[in-house]
C-alpha cells in the first residue's frame, strides 16, 4: 500500500489553495482551461497483499473520504455543497503488474468510472462534471448500465451472494478490467462482475469494518469467500443507517433499521449505542445533514456548511439497564413522586416501561417527566411543569457511552442493586455497569463473536479466563452477550462478566468474574477499534501481541493491532 504524492502547480495553489482541505494529498493532475486540477490517488496492490497492507489501504482511503467531522464518534463524509473536486482516484494493481484506476465520488464513495491504460469507462448515470473532468487524456466511453447493484447484478448474471470476493478474486478482476474493451461481440458480463468485486472490496469495505474484517480473514485463509447475509444487509442499508444516526435524538433513531446476522436472521437497530457494536463497525457515514449546533463540534469554519440542519425526532423506547432490566414506573402508578424502579422487561411494551425522548431533553412516560429530586438522590415520575416549579431536574443527557446524566449536578442515573424491584437513584458518575443504560427497543442482550488480533476470536477458556483462538462457527465459548449496562458476558454463563482488576493498573490480566455492577465490568467498543474500560480509560490488549500466552490484559491505548476488536454478529 502506498499513497502517491506530487505537488499541485502554483496556479491552482494561488487560486484555491487556501480553501482546499489540507488533509488531502494533491497527487495527480489534469490540465483544464489552463488550470491544473488536483486529484488524490490512493494505491493498493494484490501482489503479496497482507491483512496489514489491506487494512492500511482502507485506513488511508477513509482518511481521504472523511470530512474531518464525526457524529457519535463515526466519521462523516463531505457535504456535497462544500466539495471543490468531487472525485478521488484509487489505483489497483495486481500480480501481473497490471493497473486500473477507479474514480470514486468523495461525497458518497460511489465508483463513477474506471481507467485501464488509455481507455476509460463511465457508468451510464455518471453524467456531467465526472465525465467532463475525469480521465480526459484517455479515450472515454459509457457502459450500458448504471453503477447501482440492481443493474450490475443484472449484467453480471449473478447476485452479489454468488460472486466470490478475496485477493485472488480482486487480482483477476483487475486483469479483466485492464483487458476488456467495448465493441461488437464483447459482452459486458465480465466487466460488471469484476466491478462488483472491486466495488465491494474497496468502497464497501471503507464504509464497513465488518467487510474489511471478512476480507482480512480470507487473506489469512488464502481463499476467496462469498458475501454472507450480514455483509449484504450492511451494504443495502448504508444510506438508511447514515440517515438514522444523523437524524437521531441523542443516538436513538426515529424508526428502526432492519439488518441481518450472518445466519440470515433479522434484527432491528434503533440506536447508535446498540451495545456500541454499530459504532465500531461503521467506517464512514454518508453526509445527510448538519447536526444542530449545540450537539456538533465542527472542525472546519462554518462558512463551508449549508443550513441543512438535522431534524430531531421524539422516539418512544424502553430504557434497559443493569442485568438487562427495564426502567419501570412502579406499579404503573403515575402519581407525582412515585419512584422509578428496575423490573423485568415486558415481552410486549407496556405504558409504564415506555419512555419518550423529547427534543428539549426531557424523558417522559405517559406525559410525565423522569425527575430527579434535587434535595434527595431519588428518581421519580412527576408532572413536568410542577417539577420545574419546585426546582427539580427534568432534563437529561443520554450519552453514547450509556450514561444518563443530570446536566446540572453531573450525577448519573444509577441503581444500587441489580435485582428487580430496586429503585433508581442518582450517584457520582464512576462509569459502573450499575450506571449503564441503553435507550432503544431491543431489550435482550446482543449476542456476537468478538474478533481480535490476528483475526482470532475471543474465547472463554475456563470459568474465569479468556484468550484468543481460531474462530469457529457455532462454538458457544466464542459467543458473548453484550448487555445494555455495558457488561460483556459469556453466552453460556450470563451471571459472569468480563472484568479488569480493581487496581486499574496497565498490564493486569482481564478475567471473567461474577457480575457486580462495578466500574471494572463496563466496556465500550470505540470507533478506533478498541474496547475501552470507561472508568480506567484503559483498553483490552493481547499481552506482547502473542496469543499463545493466553493472556488478555488492560493497557494504555497505543493503536497497536493487539488492541483492535470487532463485534461480528
UniProtKB/TrEMBL annotation:
Assigned keywords, A-Z: Disulfide bond, Glycoprotein, Hydrolase, Plant defense, Protein synthesis inhibitor, Signal, Toxin
EC number: 3.2.2.22
Molecular-function GO terms, alphabetical: rRNA N-glycosylase activity; toxin activity
A biological process from GO: defense response
One Pfam family of this chain: Ricin_B_lectin
Gene3D superfamilies linked: 2.80.10.50, Ricin (A subunit), domain 1, Ricin (A Subunit), domain 2
SUPFAM superfamilies membership: Ribosome inactivating proteins (RIP), Ricin B-like lectins
Catalytic reactions on record: Endohydrolysis of the N-glycosidic bond at one specific adenosine on the 28S rRNA
Top-level lineage group: Eukaryota
Extent of the signal sequence: 1-18
SMART domains cross-referenced by the UniProt entry: RICIN (SM00458)
Domain Ricin B lectin residues, every copy: 314-440, 444-568
Broad EC category: hydrolase
Subunit structure: Might form dimers or tetramers of disulfide-linked A and B chains.
Known role: The A chain is responsible for inhibiting protein synthesis through the catalytic inactivation of 60S ribosomal subunits by removing adenine from position 4,324 of 28S rRNA. The B chain binds to cell receptors and probably facilitates the entry into the cell of the A chain; B chains are also responsible for cell agglutination (lectin activity).
Family classification: Belongs to the ribosome-inactivating protein family. In the N-terminal section; belongs to the ribosome-inactivating protein family. Type 2 RIP subfamily.
Protein name: Ribosome-inactivating protein
Amino acid at each position: 500500500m502506498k499513497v502517491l504524492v506530487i505537488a499541485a502547480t502554483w496556479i491552482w495553489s494561488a487560486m484555491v489553495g487556501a480553501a482546499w482541505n489540507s488533509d488531502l494529498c494533491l497527487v495527480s493532475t489534469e490540465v483544464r482551461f489552463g488550470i491544473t486540477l488536483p486529484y488524490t490517488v490512493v494505491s493498493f496492490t494484490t501482489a503479496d497483499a497482507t491483512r496489514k497492507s489491506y487494512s492500511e489501504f482502507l485506513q488511508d482511503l477513509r482518511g481521504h473520504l472523511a470530512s474531518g467531522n464525526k457524529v457519535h464518534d463515526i466519521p462523516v463524509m463531505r457535504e456535497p455543497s462544500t466539495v471543490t473536486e468531487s472525485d478521488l482516484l484509487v489505483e489497483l494493481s495486481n500480480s501481473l503488474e497490471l493497473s486500473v484506476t477507479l474514480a470514486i465520488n468523495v461525497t458518497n464513495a460511489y465508483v463513477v468510472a474506471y481507467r485501464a491504460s488509455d481507455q476509460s469507462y463511465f457508468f451510464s448515470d455518471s453524467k456531467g462534471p465526472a465525465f467532463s473532468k475525469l480521465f480526459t487524456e484517455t479515450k472515454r466511453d459509457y457502459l450500458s448500465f448504471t453503477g447501482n447493484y440492481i443493474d450490475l447484478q443484472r449484467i453480471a448474471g449473478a447476485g452479489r451472494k454468488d460472486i466470490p470476493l478475496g485477493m485472488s478474486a480482486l487480482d483477476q478482476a483487475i486483469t479483466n478490467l485492464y483487458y476488456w474493451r467495448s465493441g461488437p461481440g464483447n459482452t459486458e458480463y465480465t466487466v460488471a462482475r469484476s466491478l462488483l468485486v472491486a466495488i465491494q472490496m474497496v468502497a464497501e469495505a471503507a464504509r464497513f469494518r465488518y467487510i474489511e474484517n471478512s476480507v482480512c480473514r480470507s487473506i489469512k485463509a488464502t481463499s476467496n469467500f462469498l458475501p454472507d447475509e450480514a455483509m449484504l444487509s450492511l451494504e443495502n442499508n448504508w444510506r438508511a443507517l447514515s440517515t438514522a444516526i444523523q437524524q437521531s435524538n441523542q443516538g436513538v433513531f426515529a424508526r428502526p433499521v432492519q439488518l441481518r446476522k450472518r445466519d440470515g436472521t433479522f434484527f432491528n437497530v434503533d440506536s447508535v449505542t446498540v451495545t456500541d457494536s454499530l459504532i465500531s463497525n461503521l467506517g464512514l457515514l454518508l453526509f445527510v445533514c448538519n447536526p444542530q449546533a449545540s450537539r456538533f463540534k465542527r472542525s472546519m469554519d462554518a462558512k463551508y456548511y449549508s443550513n441543512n440542519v438535522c431534524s430531531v425526532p421524539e422516539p418512544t423506547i424502553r430504557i434497559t439497564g443493569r442485568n438487562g432490566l427495564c426502567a419501570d414506573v412502579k406499579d404503573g402508578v403515575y402519581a407525582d413522586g412515585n419512584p422509578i424502579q428496575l423490573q423485568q422487561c415486558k415481552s410486549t411494551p407496556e405504558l409504564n416501561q415506555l419512555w419518550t425522548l423529547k427534543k428539549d431533553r426531557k424523558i417522559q412516560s405517559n406525559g410525565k417527566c423522569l425527575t430527579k429530586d434535587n434535595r434527595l438522590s431519588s428518581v421519580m415520575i412527576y408532572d413536568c411543569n410542577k417539577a420545574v416549579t419546585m426546582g427539580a431536574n427534568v432534563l437529561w443527557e443520554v450519552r453514547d457511552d450509556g450514561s444518563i446524566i443530570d446536566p446540572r449536578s453531573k450525577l448519573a442515573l444509577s441503581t444500587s442493586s441489580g435485582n428487580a424491584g430496586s429503585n433508581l437513584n442518582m450517584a457520582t458518575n464512576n462509569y459502573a455497569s450499575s450506571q449503564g443504560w441503553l435507550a432503544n427497543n431491543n431489550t435482550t442482550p446482543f449476542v456476537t463473536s468478538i474478533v481480535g488480533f490476528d483475526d482470532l476470536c475471543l474465547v472463554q477458556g475456563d470459568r474465569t479466563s479468556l484468550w484468543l483462538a481460531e474462530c469457529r462457527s457455532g462454538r458457544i465459548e466464542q459467543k458473548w452477550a453484550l448487555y445494555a449496562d455495558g457488561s460483556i458476558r459469556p453466552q453460556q454463563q450470563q451471571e459472569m462478566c468480563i472484568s479488569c482488576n480493581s487496581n486499574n493498573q496497565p498490564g493486569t490480566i482481564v478475567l471473567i468474574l461474577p457480575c457486580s455492577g462495578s466500574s471494572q465490568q463496563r466496556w465500550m467498543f470505540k470507533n478506533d477499534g478498541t474496547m475501552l474500560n470507561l472508568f480506567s480509560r484503559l483498553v483490552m490488549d493481547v499481552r506482547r501481541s502473542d496469543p499463545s500466552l493466553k493472556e488478555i490484559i488492560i493497557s494504555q491505548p497505543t493503536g497497536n493491532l493487539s488492541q483492535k476488536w470487532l463485534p461480528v454478529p
